[in-house]
Amino acid sequence: MSTLFKHGALTRAMEAIVAAGGSEAREARLVAENLVTANLLGHDSHGIGMIPRYIDAVLEGGLAPNQHPRVNVDAGALLALDGNRGYGQVIGLESMQMAIERARRFGSCILSLGNSHHLGRIGQWAEMAVAEGLVSLHFVNVLSHARVAAYGGRDARFGTNPCCIAIPLPGEPPFVLDYATSAVAQGKLRVAHNKAEKVPFGRLIDSEGNPTQDPRYAVVPPFGAMLPFGEHKGSGMAIACELLGGALTGGGTWHHPESDHQRVLNGMLAVVIDPQRLGTAEAFQREARQFLDWLRKSRPAPGFDRVRIAGEPERETRAARERDGIAVDATTWKEIESAAAKVKLSPGRVNEIARGAA
Ligand SMILES: NC(=O)c1ccc[n+]([C@@H]2O[C@H](COP(=O)([O-])OP(=O)(O)OC[C@H]3O[C@@H](n4cnc5c(N)ncnc54)[C@H](O)[C@@H]3O)[C@@H](O)[C@H]2O)c1
């Protein structure tokens, strides 16, 4: 069973919960907008279902409301920031604003960001850069729990370490490749678990290391492990994200015993490039256009209507969900209501706002 909500009212309801958790109005709005946007784009794994975890993390002291990035190194095109364990929705926004300004000024910027709380959908940060005509690359590690096994291993050693590449395109919306290096995002397994659905083989092993279709092994103990995408290739990319996002940024890598902490910290190494400054702007536009036209002449494989590029599926989902509403399953909604109650906001009030009655 799920309920359909209009995105505007849903945003206001989530904003009220985050504000009740101690965030200033701007922060509450940014967190709510970021999460609801993930739902609108079809990434429910990084949508409002994160609210209970954020509230638990605030109450535990692992997520600090009302923080801003601290500048550790500011050397022109090199920027090293510390996220002060603040909401990633604010830390990510303010860090990228600085990186974009540097890339404009110097032609490129390498942004090292450690110690941010959950940055949510990484594509959001890349989209800020492409909106300014910049190319943006992101390597991210996750300090929370080990949930993904390395290629050749049968136990979890790191998180779902996302990476993202976004490229502005001539005459059409950008290419936004944005995914977890696990075969499936952990939040998608949580959603599948909440809906009592099975997942295809090849994504998960159980606590003994055997292949399983039961998403519980990614959600409740005894934990198994998720598998990286693409065998040794995805595993290598996940490890690169750990080394770049965790070690190089100084935010830290995962090598800790299991704990029941709810906080999720992200480290992110981002590279922002201004194509105008490479002296190849004309070729970039021409070659990108010619390649995409060529690519789209592909004959569709069985079961496909056409070849899409990254970013297109999200834009299609967004159009549908802005029109029809966002479906939230009953388990996720119950968890959100109890998160609200923990910060003394009545679930009745949350429902009222989310239904647009207030
Ligand atoms: N902050 C964190 O700690 C963290 C951790 C893991 C994942 N995430 C986020 O979770 C989100 C979801 O990750 P995911 O691994 O579930 O993503 P996914 O498997 O749904 O893949 C999404 C990517 O593949 C592209 N894509 C999908 N279908 C396509 C098609 N038919 N043709 C061409 N391209 C297609 C999309 O445009 C997008 O770029 C991402 O936004 C990621 O940044 C965040």
Structure notes:
With 358 residues, the chain is an alpha+beta fold. It is built from eleven helices and 13 strands. The strands form four sheets. A seven-stranded mixed sheet has the order 2-3-4-12-5-8-9, sandwiched between helices. The protein has a two-stranded antiparallel sheet with strand order 1-13. A two-stranded antiparallel ribbon has the order 6-7. The longest helix is centred in the N-terminal third of the chain and has 19 residues, at 88-106. The mean pLDDT is 95. Bound molecules: nicotinamide-adenine-dinucleotide. Residues 43, 45-46, 118-123, 142, 160, 162, 164, 176-180, 185, 188, 266, 308-311, 313-314 line the site of nicotinamide-adenine-dinucleotide.
Index terms:
single chain; 358 residues; alpha+beta; seven-stranded mixed sheet; two-stranded antiparallel sheet; 13 strands; globular; binds nicotinamide-adenine-dinucleotide
